[in-house]
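**User:** Once you have settled down, spend some time on the protein underneath, comparing sequence with structure tokens, and judge whether sequence predicts the tokens.
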Amino acid sequence: MSLFQHVETREFQIGDPIFRIAVYANSSYTDTQDMGFFGQYYNGSNLCFTGLFRDASDSGKYKLFTGLQTLPLVSDTLGIIDTNDNNYTLADLDVQNFRAFGDVATNGDLIVNGSKAAFNVNIFNVEDNIITVGAESGATEDFGYVGMRSASNVSLHDTAKISNVVIHTNYTNGSTTLLINIAASGIDYFKGWIIVNSMDGINSAKIIESSSDSGNIHTLILSSGFASNLTAGSDTVSLYNKHHVGWIYDESEGTLHAMGFPRETNETKIDYISPVNGNLPDYINVSVNDLTIKGDLTLTSSISMRTKTINIDTTFTQSDIFDYDIIFINKESDGVYTLPQISSLAVPANTAYNISFINVNAGGISTIIGSGSDTIEGKPQIQLIKLYMKVVLFVSNQLSNVWLIKG
């Protein structure tokens, strides 16, 4: 039998749905043969080869190639595509949908031109030190990092943005359509909001997928139906807006905001002053250890203080000093209040604490004393005699047995 069969034809049809190649491979052969198919083309100056093959020298990876100018070696025991040829390159491939059931590795850029990229993973690691967001967007668009919260977490931990909204028509349990009566206007005004009803409570939280309005009547489409029937005019719902939370840079203000808001899909503007069609944002709490401000500090609300009120003689504990800003002393008669021993506080290095004691009762004298050999600026005690008389004591790891009076 001849090794080569040459068929000169314009069309070659194979009736079988599957055809086999490399049929001589058996237990007598090691896995050193490449296998696949290739064709040739002329690039204007050279004869080139392109095809698809299994690369035996690279763990059996399948490769689509082009530009090869060395004729692949072919025999009954030999099939080699020369991947070391200077003109060998991997070819491009266009597909409609692509699914990988293992790892996907890319040595180039990953460019996604769709409306979103969804990563359903437990951990998403980025090895670069800096993540660039919105680099290709227009100058007027806001940008930032946003995470989406579950409906149950929103209803459990947040205060409703809008409460006691009346049901407009009777609702049948299980339905995903609900009508409410509220003064607001705009298609999808409530899209992304979280909703709970008065019958089922906070555990009934659902996501509003879309909404439409006719005057003050809004038709809401829910992610799933409620468990209970709801009666028009008596049963109510509450609406929560912080479905998404994150850091948003407002281009128009030049300000970085920590915010929560209903939705981010197709939204390019998260505006606290002039919200876009129901996408009402609210600021969220941010906790830091030390805060350095290089410019002005503008407060739009009061600073909350951690306070405690005592009505009896007390020996203070470490948590009293560390966990409170102000202790109000409200004993009608004279009282004695003992500070914890400084050596027992274990104040961290380079850390200091202030604690304010305020006598809020005119009928008693409040005497504050140190423990053991501790003093208050060299004295064993101080007295708060008058109503609202205050002292601020200061302690740090640099002070072995002395409380300082601040101010």
